[in-house]
Amino acid sequence: MRNRKILIGALVSALAFVGIGMNTVSANAATTTLTIWHNLGDTQNATAVKALTDAYTKLHPDVTFKLVSQPADNYFALLQAAAVSKKGPDMALMWTGLFALQYKSYLANLKGVVSAAALAREGSLNWSSPNFDAANGPYVMPFDRQFYIGFYNKAALKKAGVAAVPSTWNELYAACTKLKGAGYTPIVYGNGGQSLGALYYPWYDASYIAIGQSSVDGLRDLYSGKNQWNSAVNIASYTKYAALKSKGCTNSDVLTKTNNLDDFLGGKAAMIIDGTWDTKKFTDKMGTNVAAFVPPFSDKPIKGVVEFAGQGLSLTAYSKNQKAAAGFLEFMTTSAAAKLVDGAGLISNVNGSTTSNPVNQEMLDFATKKGYARYPMLDNVLQGDVVDAGNKILPAILGGKTSIAGGLKQMAQVWANLAPDKRGNSYK
Questions:
Q1: pLDDT tens digits, one per residue of 35-66
Q2: CA distances from 303 to 23, 213, 218, 236, 293 (A)
Q3: CATH fit for domain 147-307+368-422, picks 3.40.50.300, 3.40.30.10, 3.40.190.10, 3.40.109.10
Q4: Which of 48, 53, 160, 341 would disulfide-bridge 182, Cβ 3.0–4.6 Å?
């Protein structure tokens, strides 16, 4: 906490120097309280939001914040219900991609609400703009750049005699055999970390399965139906995915485990598929013994990585405090705000910002130094009904509770039941 105070003090001095946001507020000025809903729990993202709001109030004492943590599993349903009565928050934590666009009826388009200069300072705004075109204006102000990524314990791989991080399905299966023989759970699954429901969140894995099959543009084929969920290529890929459990690569309780992060942090598990919101937890506990890797869910080495402006804050269309909220959203695009996000252990989405966490830097290097293509999070560019179905069906495939062909047929049926305008080439 002392470090945060030092950082905020430095922030005030820096902003005073460049003349940003240092309006004098009289002691009698009315105070505006901005309510923010989120479903971040106690993750690093929640720490970042708290740091940003604290810093803004330090600079603008006439603006305070009420942060409301909502349950993750029905967060969006709560937002929709609140929008009907127009008694919801001024701002809401929102995922980018189609998650944002499907709720745009009660969100404000930020084009013209915050300055063009502020929007230009942010990256990846296309992913929250209609048809993923930034010229149409975004509905989300992202605060961090996220990765779906794998983490591994260097000491575990060394002890097990795994000379190199696996880069294909077969290399992964072979590494699992060695790791299990050395007493480790090779890959631990569960709903810990960014808990989004009772089951583990399958879209980290599904994103890399899709990367192993297609180009970035090719992901649209799952949206449009050109690549059906029960296609031969998907059945083949998910058969190899289901084999992770049958070959002993995972814990036996993939569908019920809740402390998977503890197993990785405690050295019981060698690998975990997770994201940047937990990087700091890993580096704080494991130091230089933890590193990032691209999940090798392909027959050939994958040359892509999920790098995406994953989360941010949206302004509700019915907020009575839009001007005050817009001021805060503009502040989120400054270099000072980027430092606060980095201080929480995340990667800022402000263009040109840096990260002080070496494992986060490893992730950035996949694209900037190793030439990996940047892919969006698959769940953020698929129809909501398909994502909801996948939240249950894909874990059941890995857990052995449903057949690969049967589960993927169910996914295809969900897609077929979508409205015709949700199955075209334009994202809606």
A1: 999 999 888 889 999 999 999 999 999 999 99
A2: 48, 11, 14, 20, 12
A3: 3.40.190.10
A4: 160
